[in-house]
Design a protein that fits this description.
binds guanine, four-stranded parallel sheet, 17 strands, 2 domains, binds fe (iii) ion, 13 helices, Urease, subunit C, domain 1, alpha/beta
Length: 423
């Protein structure tokens, strides 16, 4: 039985606009699920073992809705380029290396260890086109204790031969074999269909992936309306689509009857947003990547106001760092510049909103995840700010805000995923 009590200064989100702070509180966990947050522990739980973190902060684990495991090795390079040049110059040559099992072993080993130590407890991850390396990544993630969706990437046009699947039929056959093996071998690590983006996927490939999606009832992840150059290219390649998202929707790859994440949505127009809302598509807001690749800043407060499903993402290696703390910081900073320079009708994000995006907002993709509400999976981080000097006592909310800006992995002293302690 995985039943216990965690004590500490507890912070989670009451709603997108408001934090809940319980100083010196207790979280009761039974069977890996939260039973409640208490100021005073009810008598009925008095016999459970206690892990007392004293003055430390206990917050929900964070969900990274979009990250490329296969790009971790070259993070921090090519950050002076725009999206399409960056893909051709850095990304595709790097991803070609994953044909080599030895390279995949080393590179994915480093990625998974970094993610295990980071604020992330759940993630939606891109691998490469290579089935063997994708399974290797899943094996390492499974062993880490994290929960994730992993996509073997599909692409069969407009890219170098070294990262191009030979044709739609071969791509779908290999993808199907990968799905079956992954389902057989892993429980915490699930396959997700991953057409890279419209420019690199032929209609035949999209059709085949639509069939696989239905046959195996799979979720979908991809990129959408990220960058001006990309959007113009999609218009040329897919003239029959009314808007970019329609080029996925035509093939049954845009939510509705399945879970779906679309990364970026920096430049989505009203018709696209209406379908995102109708189909319950999750938007993975990736502020650092959108700055680095000169894509812009998504109007994320507007998306929140519209009631869309939104979470945060690092998008490594468009984003240079795997820390979701940094993603929270970048989301706030980018929203302030957007508000000041571009459109004062779309408010900047508050700290509470950005924290909600990183926890409950993205967590919803994975189920009841990202808060300490009753029945939620117990995913948590225990944070120690003793190393972050301040000359006087601070309240818990201020301590959390400082940690998001100043802390790194060394300040995370314990991490739980679905009730299991990873360290
Ligand atoms: N669009 C297609 N592929 C990619 C990628 O690897 N990163 C980003 N940021 N956008 C993409
Ligand atoms: Fe991406």
């Amino acid at each position: 039985m995985n039943d216990f009590i965690i004590k500490g200064n507890i912070v989670d989100s009451e709603c997108p606009d408001r934090l809940r702070v319980v100083e010196n509180g207790s979280i009761v966990v039974t069977d890996g699920l939260c039973r409640g947050v208490f100021r005073a522990l009810p008598e009925q739980f008095a016999g459970l073992p206690v892990q007392d973190f004293a003055d430390r902060l206990v917050i929900p684990g964070m969900s990274d809705l979009h990250i490329h495991a296969s790009q971790y090795a070259f993070r921090g390079l090519g950050m002076d380029m725009e999206l399409l040049d960056w893909l051709n110059t850095y990304t595709f040559p790097e991803e070609a290396k994953y044909l080599d099992r030895g390279y995949a072993e080393r590179a994915y080993g480093g990625f998974v260890e970094a993610l295990r130590r980071s604020p992330t407890t759940r993630a939606a991850i891109f691998a490469t086109i290579h089935p063997e390396a994708s399974l290797l990544l899943m094996e390492k993630l499974e062993a880490s204790g994290l929960r994730s969706f992993v996509g073997k990437v599909n692409m069969d046009r407009n890219c170098p031969d070294s990262v191009r699947e030979p044709d739609a039929e071969t791509a779908c056959r290999e993808t199907e074999a990968w799905i079956l093996e992954a389902r057989d071998r892993f429980t915490r690590t699930e396959p997700i269909l991953t057409p890279r983006f419209v420019p690199t996927c032929s209609d035949g490939l999209m059709e085949g992936l639509g069939r696989l999606r239905k046959r195996y009832d799979l979720p979908v992840q991809s990129h959408l309306s990220e960058n001006g150059g990309e959007i113009a290219w999609v218009k040329e390649l897919s003239p029959a689509s009314r808007f970019y998202g329609d080029a996925y929707a035509r093939f049954g790859l845009f939510g509705g009857d399945h879970r779906c994440i679309m990364a970026h949505c920096v430049l989505s127009e009203d018709e696209e947003l209406a379908l995102i809302e109708k189909n319950g598509v999750f938007i993975a807001h990736s502020p650092e990547s959108n700055m680095n690749l000169s894509s812009g800043v998504a109007p994320v407060s507007r998306y929140l106001k519209l009631g869309l499903k939104v979470g945060l993402a690092t998008d490594v290696a468009g984003g240079s760092h795997e820390s979701m703390f940094k993603a929270v910081q970048h989301a706030i900073q980018a929203s302030k510049l957007r508000w000041r320079l571009l459109d004062e009708s779309v408010k900047a994000l508050s700290f509470a909103q950005a924290f909600w995006l990183a926890t409950a907002g993205g967590g919803a993709f994975f189920g009841k995840v990202g808060r300490f509400g009753e029945g939620y999976d117990f995913d948590a981080l225990v944070l120690d700010d003793a190393s972050l000097f301040h000359p006087q006592p601070l309240d818990v909310r201020s301590r959390l805000e400082r940690m998001i800006y100043l802390a790194d992995d060394r300040n995370i002293i314990a991490k739980y995923v679905a009730g299991n302690r990873l360290f």
